[in-house]
Amino acid sequence: MKQPAAKSSLRRLCPNIDKEDGLETVLEIPIPEEMFATMGTNVTLRWQNMLTWMRAQTEDKLASPTVAARLNELRFLLYLVGSPLIPLQVQLGHSIHRPVRDCSIEASTAKYIVQQYIAATGGQPALNAVDSMCVTGQIKISASDFHHTSESIEVKKTSEEIGGFVLWQKDPDLWCLELVVSGCKVCCGSNGKVSWRHSSNQQTAVSRGAPRPLRRFLQGLDPRATANLFLDAACIGEKIINDEECFILKLETSPAIREAQSGPNFEIIHHTIWGYFSQRSGLLVQFEDSRLLTMRTKDDNDIFWETSLESVIEDYKYVDGINVSHSGKTRVTVSRYGEQSANHKRELEERWKIEEVDFNIWGLTAESFLPPSNLGKT
Fold first, then answer.
1. Which of 35, 127, 143, 274 is the residue whose CA sits 20 to 30 A from 158?
2. What is the model's pLDDT at position 4?
3. What's the predicted TM-score (pTM) here?
């Protein structure tokens, strides 16, 4: 049974600025009230400033260094923190049981922990009854600049960016995410064949390798995908997370997958995933992944980039019999180093809050997940 709806902190309608008695427009992506309040001293001015900023992202305005630099920074935040992918393709078939015969003790223990997680999130019949979902929410992102790294340096956060998102998913590999943060919009998705990203000042980019799920699904929104992902994991020990005793499940990306996702100028050296499952509740309370890649420069030097993401998953609530997380935060550390490159580090943090979750969306078809028209031209 659904929880009683609380008062939404997202603005979903845009008034007709030109005609006072005109119909309001339903926004494609709800805007957090907190973000809207910072855009002017009154409602009309706020909408005018919002429209002006969105129009500034057209190609003829991007020649402005100030606008281009601001959009590039926002796009970096939204790609890295707001819409990262996980390295492994998740098979979303209805069978989430695997035999434990011929498994190591670590692998069989992991399968037992996953079964407890399935029970804690609603049970297999409830999870199998879901074939689509729609999620709306808001995020706050803060980030430091790149700093020369040392063990004693303190990385201080700069200003906070606020935005909203809409996430659509249809079983098995169809999903689409639309994000608006501080007036910058980014779309990404998968049509079951390729995963892609698109923003207002960049051509559509296609992710290498097989289509992969959005990391946000594994942050407490899609228990069935999470269970399928960790069925192949190994239990490597225990750890206390926020006063909760947890089992640690670990997944390594295979060399074949890393090779498929690497490019002509970069190579993924490793990509590892960890899940921390509460021994008390059975729920996933923390999700981590770490990726190391090397890039070859024009001078034939190697530069290493290491990205680590740590998500704390909180506020589980039942929606139509499914136990879904409704808030949390992700901390990201980006490090760059190499023989000919000065060592740099940047830290970022995203806090998210889920406003609404709906399952089994009527009328949602494969045509709802088509990529941008310019995908074939890139």
1. 274
2. 47
3. 0.84
Q: Residue 195 and residue 164: Cα distance in Å, rounded?
A: 21
Tokens for 354, please give them.
Answer: 């889920």
CB of 213 closer than 8 Å to CB of 175:
yes
For residues 188 and 197, what is the distance between their CA atoms, to the nearest angstrom?
A: 4
DSSP state of 4: P
CA distances from 196 to 211, 370, 378 (A): 9, 10, 11
Contact 66, 202 (CB under 8 A): no
Find, among 30, 25, 33, 35, the residue nearest to 74 by Cα.
Answer: 35
Under DSSP, the state recorded for 350 is E
Cα torsion 312, 215, 165, 192 to 10°: value is -160
Compute the C-alpha angle 310/250/77, nearest 5°.
Answer: 25
For the record, the structure tokens of 98 come out as 């695997």
Dihedrals phi, psi of 45, to nearest 5 degrees = -65, -35
pLDDT (tens digit, 9 = 90+) per residue, 207-266?
877 788 899 999 999 999 999 999 999 999 999 999 999 999 999 999 999 998 888 888
Enter the tokens of residue 294: 């090397």
Distance of CA 16 to the CA centre of its chain: 33
Residues in the chain with pLDDT values less than 50: 1-5, 94, 151-155, 377-378
Gap between the Cα atoms of 255 and 188, Å rounded? 26
Q: Residue with structure tokens 């989430």?
A: 96
